[in-house]
Amino acid sequence: MVARIAIVSRIVRRASIIGFFPPMTRAHPSRFAGAAALVALVLHPTFVAAQARPDSTTSVETEAPTITLTPRQPGIGSLVRLTIRRASRPSDSLAAVAGSMAGEPLHFQADDSGDLRAFGPVPIEVSDSVVARVVLSYASGEADSLRLAIPYPHRPTPTGGRPARARRLRVSRVYTARPDSLTEQRIEREAQQARAVGRRAHDTPQLWSQPFLRPRSSRITSGFGSGRVFNGRLTSSHGGVDFAGQPGDAVRAANRGVVALVGSFFLAGNVVYVDHGAGVVTGYFHLTEATVTEGDTVERGQQIGLVGATGRVTGPHLHWSARYGQQTFDPMGLIELTAEPRTTRRAPARAGIR
Ligand SMILES: [Zn+2]
């Protein structure tokens, strides 16, 4: 038994060199395996060569589960879904699944077909690659180790160029002037509070079962990641999605969860953070006021606050943010990944619905 574990681990390690594993298309000639091969092809250009190589260990490789990624080419700062299809083990049962991606724990749940699914984050500061590792432990004491590496270009430290999508805003000096040290301390303290909410969300069970909703049905005025140029100087990338709105318009919870934080922040103004569990948190910024309090359980679509212009803003709107643990990601990913119909199995690596 111990020897078999070692063999699986060794094969897994070798396969991971090509950025994906296991190379088992021949052993599992299903639609799913075909899609997995497609993913691997995208993930690493040497995949074709690896597939063409004669393989004398197929009998062992058929024991290994497969892991696929949705979307297949996730952008920087995006949420992904990992799907593990387990190999059939007639005389053994799964005892535990543990995994991590970008330093955050993964929360796998079995779907109707027995596949294991979890969200994972691609950090906004990713460079070179992001790696997911999963260990499936069985009642017999055996285990499968899975590793998925998604390559990204190496990103040198920014030198201050203006990105193609940057928006040029002319605003009061109060926004570009360096804040005094007390204000800097306040900003850091509030950032720590928000990070702590994300950390604690890993300890909350998944509280939603339906797809995520937009917090407002209005027009998106600024998407995630668009650069901000204040008075000709690039200051930061946009860590959320802005929705149009007038003061007093309703802001709705994107899904069921518990209100983890209601605060009045220097940058974000009046904020509400909702902990949806399984590591997922959404934030609603610049509110005129929150209409919920910490500890409230909110339902999907329930009003939680009113649009406003509090904090560092140039006008009233809703800024919607999301975190997986401590990693900020584009909240639209929650809508895209949870809205996909079940028929997606035929093309699990399909690009986003956007
Ligand atoms: Zn915003």
Task: Give a concise summary.
Helix content is 20%, strand content 33%.
Give the uncertain stretches in residue-range form: 1-62, 344-354
CATH architecture of the largest domain: Distorted Sandwich
Tell me the radius of gyration. Answer: 22 Å
Instruction: Tell me which ligands are bound.
Output: zinc ion
Structural class: alpha+beta
Strand content: 25-35%
Domains (count): 2
Give helix % range. 10-25%
Would you kindly provide a written description of the structure presented here, covering whatever features stand out?
With 354 residues, the chain is an alpha+beta fold. The protein folds into two domains: 2-154, Sandwich (Immunoglobulin-like); 167-337, Distorted Sandwich (Glucose Permease (Domain IIA)). Helix content is 20%, strand content 33%. The protein is built from seven helices and 22 strands. The protein has helices at residues 2-16, 31-43, 47-52, 58-61, 173-176, 181-201, 332-339, and strands at 66-70, 79-85, 94-101, 104-105, 109-110, 116-121, 129-138, 143-151, 167-169, 220-222, 227-230, 233-237, 241-244, 250-252, 257-265, 269-277, 280-287, 289-290, 297-298, 303-306, 317-324, 327-329. Strands 10, 13, 15, 16, 17, 19, 21 and 22 form an eight-stranded antiparallel sheet that branches. Strands 1-2-6-5 form a four-stranded antiparallel sheet. A four-stranded antiparallel sheet has the order 4-3-7-8. The N and C termini lie far apart (47 Å). The relative contact order is 0.14. Mean pLDDT is 78; it is low at 1-62 and 344-354.
